[in-house]
């Protein structure tokens, strides 16, 4: 019995470390997204395309086979194919990225518990993706700053082991506003340098 308790406490400690390291990775990605989202657009677009392609490939292939090697091959192939398409077809990549960020944000707010509510979140995400295609720069700055700001706030809450409350929402809003300002300033400087 004592060995079992030792084993369970070791597992709990390891899971706690994984949660902290995940919050740390999310924090770093949130900072990059919040303050450099537009500058890192190509990287985010490629990564979003890869992720979407991998998920689609897995969901299709896993229905027809349980073979792990086939599934892994499909995940890599689907990810690379959609990732490269998103990277090279600019507006398609922006659409994917804005749709993913929009769907995630709306899902966090609405917390869908059934497929109908998830489809509503996805529909709103697609609308945000279409707006992103039409108004690339402002929508990318807005999406990445908002997503990054609230990711930073959620990561800080996770690292401090606190519930997401009003203070965390205020922190996310302040960070997102700051991120929008920083990205606008950085992109203006970049535009001025490219004109000279």
Architecture overview:
This protein has 196 residues and is an all-alpha fold. It has one domain. It contains seven helices and no strands. The protein has helices at residues 2-36, 41-64, 68-88, 90-110, 115-134, 136-159, 166-195. The longest helix is centred in the N-terminal third of the chain and has 35 residues, at 2-36. The radius of gyration is 19 Å and the shape is globular.
Cα separation of the termini:
73 Å
> Major β-sheet, in short?
none
Rg calc: 19 Å
Number of strands: 0
Number of domains: 1
> What is the molecular shape?
globular
- Low confidence ranges: none
The topology string of helices and strands comes to HHHHHHH
Structural class: mainly alpha
Query: Number of helical segments?
Result: 7
Strand content: under 5%
Mean pLDDT: 83
Q: What share of the residues lie within helices?
A: over 70%
Q: Assembly type of the shown chains?
A: single chain
């Amino acid at each position: 019995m004592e060995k079992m308790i030792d084993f369970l406490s070791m597992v709990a400690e390891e899971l706690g470390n994984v949660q902290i390291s995940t919050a740390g990775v999310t924090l770093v990605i949130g900072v990059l997204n919040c303050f450099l989202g537009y500058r890192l657009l190509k990287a985010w677009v490629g990564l979003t395309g890869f992720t979407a392609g991998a998920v689609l490939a897995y969901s299709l292939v896993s229905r027809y086979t349980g073979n792990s090697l086939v599934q892994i091959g499909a995940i890599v192939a689907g990810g690379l194919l959609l990732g490269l398409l998103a990277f090279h077809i600019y507006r398609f990549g922006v659409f994917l990225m804005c749709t993913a960020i929009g769907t995630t944000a709306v899902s966090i707010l609405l917390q869908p518990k059934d497929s109908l509510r998830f489809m509503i979140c996805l529909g709103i995400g697609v609308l945000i993706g279409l707006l992103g295609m039409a108004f690339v720069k402002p929508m990318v700055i807005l999406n990445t700053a908002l997503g990054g700001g609230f990711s930073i706030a959620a990561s800080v809450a996770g690292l401090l082991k606190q519930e997401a409350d009003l203070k965390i929402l205020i922190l996310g809003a302040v960070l997102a506003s700051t991120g929008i300002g920083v990205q606008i300033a950085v992109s203006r400087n970049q535009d001025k340098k490219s004109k000279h």
